Every structure is written in structure tokens, then in C-alpha cells.
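Why do we bother with holo predictions? Because pocket geometry can differ from the apo form. Keep that in mind while you read this record for pyridoxal-5'-phosphate.
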Amino acid sequence: MSSLHDRHRAVSPDWLALYYKHPLEITHGEGRHVWDADGRRYLDFFGGILTTMTAHALPEVTKAVGEQAGRIIHSSTLYLNRPMVELAERVATLSGIPDARVFFTTSGTEANDTALLLATAYRRSNQILAMRNSYHGRSFSAVSITGNNAWSPTSLSPLQTLYVHGGVRTRGPYADLGDAEFIEACVADLEDLLGQTRTPAALIAEPIQGVGGFTSPPDGLYAAFRRVLERHGVLWISDEVQTGWGRTGEHFWGWQAHGQNGPPDILTFAKGIGNGMSIGGVVARADVMNCLDANSISTFGGSPVTMAAGLANLSYLLEHDLQGNARRVGGLLIERLRAIGAGSECVREVRGRGLMIGIELVKPGTDEAHPEAASAVLEAAREGGLLIGKGGGHNTSVLRIAPPLSLTITEAEEGAKVLAEALRSVG
Ligand SMILES: Cc1ncc(COP(=O)(O)O)c(C=O)c1O
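The structure, written out:
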């Protein structure tokens, strides 16, 4: 009898990567822990790619899903759907976008695809500005605005994409500048680019780059960009698929670190809101959302079961102030990891905010990415009972730490101890 791994390999695409030399089958979870098929327990610091936002098997979400599934699973957007309207109302209010309209999809990719459709139709332009080192999803349109060739398998595209500097603070041509000069240089680059293009539809950016290794510009960069974009009539799309819902601690949305000149025109979300149920969506000002002059639906977008899960999950998040918890526990965790990193020759930088923390690894004594060390630490952490993620530019050399937002201080300490040990094992 072949193993599940062999069966997976035989039937799945080669490009569907699995973590670990001996991939893990996760069979169940509770709180911040998951169990594998052999009954071994792990502390989960990755939440299925920042998606288990509140906790595994959160009773409130499970109950809402069960009750809704018992009533009706699907009706489609052709009929009124109470949970969808209720979640849209809450997301519209939380978004900070005036006169906001919300359209639900089933993934972040589809949310960004919708944002691109809206922006290009509204502006009658197929030019998009995106950030270097970005990731926005897996569809034909999303890979064409992804500034990271490890995740962009084709350059054929319906869009013309121009890449802007600024998403990566400590590498690249402006790395040695102070924060204010860094922003100035990136704005000058954007101005230069706009002077040489026709009329781009929008700039799309992740406030903190997720797949790119939890890198971000100094606070205020996108506000400075916003001022320039507005002069040219170019829209700002904030991709909040990883940064939304309070994960960054200080802010509910990542864009709020850049909110001096108002909210984005379009905001996209996914991952955490459904706690694993497939919800994505796009929020836009009514004039932008309503600019399409043909019908459009998503058969599964806004389905009652996922919406019931989203409502229960969002209520739990807000009622338990998990954003505050992310700020407090994340703050302690990052300090602890910085202290650990200071003792390791492999650690170039510990960065992030809230419960979105990256540890960039390099070959000792150099500035060179060290993907082998990142893989080794991932394995060693697993051995120690801790699941983490990795990411980062063209060489995957950044450890990504993004636990459920209900993480306790004791669990943060426990995870940090395992990480310290795992990092020691690579030097
Ligand atoms: C910032 C960002 N945007 C979009 C996506 C795509 O979301 P999905 O995988 O749900 O299609 C991701 C996924 O990792 C992401 O990190």
C-alpha cells in the first residue's frame, strides 16, 4: 500500500509544494495546536498560511457552520442572503472606505482579480503598478502583477505591469537611506515611472509583503504614494489578504500605517476572516464598484455557510480584542526573537509587527540568502513540536511566524524556546 505522500505525488501537480522532507498530515486541531496522523501534537505558528485567525476548532465558528449547514448550504446570489448582507455591512463599516460596497469571492486571488477588473474598467487602462517582491495570488491576472518570479510562472499577461520600489526596506538600491529619504527616493521613482507611462489604472500593494518574507516600507510610504497617485487619477488597491483583521496589532488594516491621506480606493481581503472557510472579497467606493456595465456573479462567493462562519469569527475577534492580543503578545514575541536572533550568526533581521514576524537568514558573515538554513530550521522546529512557515523573495530564506491571534504568552514563550533551539542547530 503506497503512502499518502506517494499517492499525493502521483495525482497532484509537481508545482504543488509540500513542507518538510517527510510531509505532515494534519488531522485535527484545537486552539493554537494541531495533531498529526500519528497523534503528535504541535504548536501552530503558521495557522495554515495566516488563515486560522482566531483559533482551531473555535466552538463559536463550528456551531455557526453546523447550524447554517443544517438550515441551507447554498442558494446563490440570485436570492437574498441574510448572513451575506450582515457580513458585508460589518466589513463595509470596518473598511474605513466611504460609501463602501462589498463583493464576496472564494479566495484572495479572486478578490484581487476582481479589484483588477474594477480598476482597469474604471480607468479604461490595462496598466497596473505593483511592488517588487509582491505576491497577489495564483490566477492568470494575479501572477502577472506578482513581482517575485518564484511565484509567477508566466510573463504572458492581459495586463501591462510596472514595478515600483519600496516594499523591501533593508535590501535594494535604497536600503542604506534613512526612513524619510527612503520614502523620498521611492516617491521620486514613482513620479519618474508615471512620467514615462500612459495612464495606469491602479497601484496594488500589500502593506506588509506576505509571501515576500514579511517585508514592509517605513510607515507613511503608501500615504506619500497616494498623494502622487491622486494627482494622476490612479487608484490605490490595498491587498489586505495577510495583513487584515488586526494581525499587525497596531492597526486593524495594514493600510492604516499609511492612512494619512485617507483609505485606499479598493481593499481586498481573504484568509483569516473565514478561519479556514473559503471567503475572499473586495471592498470599493460605490462609484468604483458600480463601474461595470455587465452582469457578474460568483456562484460560491458569499455562500451562507461561509458567511455564517465569517460572522461568528469576526464577532469573536472583536469581542475578545484579538487585535490587542496580537499587539501585546506579538510585541513580547518579537522582542524575545530579536534577543535570540542577536545570538545567531545566521539571523540577518527579525522584523514585522503584531503576530506577523519574519526572521531573515543569511550565510554567516555574509548578506547572502540562506534558504538551506531556513529549510533546516523548519525541520528542526517541527522536531521540537512547532510549525512555522517560510517565504521571502527569490530565495526562500525568511522564517514566517503568524500564529492564531489568540496566542497566549505561555505559548509564545514555548514557541520561542523551540525556535531558539532550532536556530542553534544551524549555527
Ligand atoms: C497578499 C496575498 N494576496 C493574495 C493571495 C491569494 O490568496 P488565495 O491563496 O486565497 O487565492 C495571497 C495568498 O497567499 C496573499 O498572501
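The first strand starts at residue 26 and ends at 30.
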